[in-house]
Amino acid sequence: MNLPILTYPNDILRKKAEEIKDPKDPEIKQLILDMIETMEKSGNALGLAAPQVGKMVRLCIIKLEGKTHILVNPVIKSKSIRKEMAEEGCLSFPGKFIPIKRSKKVTVKLVNRHGEKITIKAEGLLARAFQHEIDHLDGLLIIDKENKN
Ligand code: CO
Known about the structure:
Layout: H1 26-41, E1 47-49, E2 59-64, E3 67-79, E4 83-88, E5 98-103, E6 105-111, E7 117-123, H2 124-137, H3 142-145
Antiparallel strand pairs: 1-2, 2-3, 3-6, 4-5, 6-7
This protein binds cobalt (II) ion (CO).
Cobalt (II) ion binds at residues 90-92, 132, 136.
């Protein structure tokens, strides 16, 4: 099911999302499918976080280079000191692109769609997407990152 995407300044985007207790819960499984469909219908977005569709759980989807990453309860364990600047868009800010400095590399711990705890090391655009989507789970948005280190 295609879900409506909340846009700034909706207050829900500023709330902190709750940890998911059971990644195999049928409601969570359905939400994952709905978020993938919503993202695919939205055009060329790289990622979507559950709060953007009004669901306050720690879940995000990233699709890059043909691979779909399902992130349940993701936590950034480490990030590189070295950063790089690039323009970022967000489905909650239609048509807006902001240059943002982000760590080039990150290590993220998460639970995948099978309920397994895994660690992913990412760099470049994937590392950027992880940082952007995980920010959404804490109510942080691209406008907060503008002109900051
Ligand atoms: Co976004």
